[in-house]
């Protein structure tokens, strides 16, 4: 029997987030790694039988990060710059780790800034962790594999 060339998918819970080259913290969730290109429908007057579809503007969804609330104020301070009328654009990367915890792929975003911060929901009847959420608007997403 021949050796298998099986490639297992990466696990969604094994990732790191770095912003400007610094590992900010362990996040419990990351979403919004999405790109979308508008479809422009076009038809010339002398064409019969259909519409042409050509690519329009490419958009990048905001990246949403969630983590347990700690004493660290790095994310809040970054957001506070925008609240106060400034802008602090940063690049970052979401690193997917393999089973041996070595990097296997990277989603790099550029020109990111925090457009939304959400504090935890408190409930005295629950034993859940207090979670903070940061939403990052950005201008580009690239995928690199190791």
Give an overview in words.
With 146 residues, the protein is mostly beta strands. The protein has 1 helix and 10 strands; from the N terminus they run E-E-E-E-E-E-H-E-E-E-E. It has one helix spanning 74-83, and strands at residues 15-19, 22-23, 29-31, 35-42, 52-60, 63-68, 90-97, 103-118, 131-137, 141-145. Strands 1, 2, 3, 6, 7, 8, 9 and 10 form an 8-stranded antiparallel sheet that branches. A two-stranded antiparallel sheet has the order 4-5. The longest helix is centred in the middle third of the chain and has 10 residues, at 74-83. It starts with 14 loop residues before the first strand and ends with a strand.
Question: What are the key terms here?
Answer:
single chain; 146 residues; mainly beta; extended
Count of helical regions: 1
SSE ordering: EEEEEEHEEEE
Largest sheet: 8 strands, antiparallel
Average pLDDT, to the nearest integer? Answer: 90
Spatial gap, N to C terminus: 30 Å
Q: Can you tell me the residue ranges where pLDDT is under 50 for at least 5 consecutive residues?
A: none
The best one-word shape is extended
Helix content: under 10%
In a nutshell, what does this entry contain?
The chain has one helix at 74-83; strands at residues 15-19, 22-23, 29-31, 35-42, 52-60, 63-68, 90-97, 103-118, 131-137, 141-145.
Topology, pairings included?
Layout: E1 15-19, E2 22-23, E3 29-31, E4 35-42, E5 52-60, E6 63-68, H1 74-83, E7 90-97, E8 103-118, E9 131-137, E10 141-145
Antiparallel strand pairs: 1-2, 1-7, 3-6, 4-5, 6-9, 7-8, 8-9, 8-10
């Amino acid at each position: 029997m021949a050796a298998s060339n099986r490639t297992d998918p990466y696990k969604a819970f094994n990732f790191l987030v770095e912003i400007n080259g610094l590992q900010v913290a362990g996040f419990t969730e990351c979403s919004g790694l999405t790109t979308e290109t508008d479809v422009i429908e076009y038809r010339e007057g002398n064409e019969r039988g259909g519409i042409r579809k050509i690519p329009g503007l490419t958009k990048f969804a905001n990246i949403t990060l969630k983590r347990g609330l700690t004493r660290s104020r790095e994310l809040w301070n970054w957001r506070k710059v925008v609240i106060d009328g400034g802008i602090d654009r940063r690049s970052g990367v979401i690193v997917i780790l393999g089973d041996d915890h070595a990097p296997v792929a990277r989603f790099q975003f550029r020109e990111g800034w925090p457009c939304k911060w959400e504090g935890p929901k408190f409930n005295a009847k629950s034993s859940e962790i207090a979670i903070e959420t940061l939403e990052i608007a950005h201008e580009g997403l690239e995928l690199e594999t190791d």
